């Protein structure tokens, strides 16, 4: 292991990986730095977001929900309206443009629940890139429909039997592939986690969320929000939703974790997956297996920048239980006609609590990270039991 000083957020982040991988990541960091300062690259990114993803998406005033709480005005940033139904596509497009620019012919990615695999396969289809998705054997069984989606999109899904056959093992397999094939292969990582430069890069591409919401709220309300609320799995939708507000001292930034996987609220500093963050460890010091009803929030660690925002006190991090998220899932559906992803329902649940504590002239922006279609079957089974 060699430790790089780059990509540190306070004591968190960095790059704790073997030397051969460190070199590959060093090249990636340099290429990203050049790309993000190239106006032609940024223009292409914006154009694809407009034409393919459907940005910009609206900032919707949730009138019924707000009036019911008799408190703050709640706005929803509609990442659920993006092509493929969530924020993940923003990052997939950004990284695939970088892959193309670096001359890669092949993309590899990891996926847990399958959402990032689908976003990556979508972007690869669009750019004619060969695509291999590593997925734990165990996860493939639970997410058979997402495996089929990726295959429809032309991707090869590789089953990973090593370890527990879960997300962590898929990450290891994808990194192994990268080290072996780095000359023509690009690793498209799905959240604001991992060794440098991934957290910085993913934040950059997801920052389009707060770039838009800040402009939109100024147009609609003529002032900045009191708080921005987002759910936190690895932390990519949240860091994108917070990015343009971090230096606005009067705007509260609030990340919502599942009470069943509270990395920030109860975690300790440790190195996992090649970077340092607040994480949940078991008695033996290994990443603790977690379970959230929202598959996308089921990660024992958390992005390094969130770890630092928590430690410095700039960010507030709270927990919401699966039951509270489920109640919010139903409430938003009934009051606003929007079925949210179970992940996003965690953010909604907290925004409702917060709205009650605030005044009528306060504004809350909730990042609605994804739509709930993918979760309807699961909620149905939770309500009525598994059907024959
Ligand atoms: C994957 C996912 C998340 C969690 O990932 P982050 O990197 O923390 O944003 C949240 N919401 C939805 C809809 C997702 O698909």
Automatic annotation (TrEMBL):
HAMAP family according to UniProt: Trp_synth_beta
Keywords: Amino-acid biosynthesis, Aromatic amino acid biosynthesis, Lyase, Pyridoxal phosphate, Tryptophan biosynthesis
E.C. no: 4.2.1.20
One annotated Gene Ontology cellular component of this protein: cytoplasm
Subunit structure: Tetramer of two alpha and two beta chains.
Domain Tryptophan synthase beta chain-like PALP residues, every copy: 55-370
One Pfam assignment: PALP
Involved pathway(s): Amino-acid biosynthesis; L-tryptophan biosynthesis; L-tryptophan from chorismate: step 5/5
Record lineage: Bacteria, Bacillati, Bacillota, Bacilli, Bacillales
Name under which the protein is recorded: Tryptophan synthase beta chain
Co-factor requirement: pyridoxal 5'-phosphate
Family as reported in the entry's similarity comment: Belongs to the TrpB family.
Originating species: Gracilibacillus salitolerans
UniProt cross-references to CDD domains, sorted A to Z: Trp-synth_B (cd06446)
Purpose: The beta subunit is responsible for the synthesis of L-tryptophan from indole and L-serine.
SUPFAM superfamilies (alphabetical): Tryptophan synthase beta subunit-like PLP-dependent enzymes
The keyword Lyase belongs to this UniProt entry's keyword annotation: yes
N6-(pyridoxal phosphate)lysine modified-residue sites: 88
Reaction(s) this enzyme catalyzes, per UniProt: (1S,2R)-1-C-(indol-3-yl)glycerol 3-phosphate + L-serine = D-glyceraldehyde 3-phosphate + L-tryptophan + H2O
GO molecular function: tryptophan synthase activity
Record carries keyword DNA repair: no
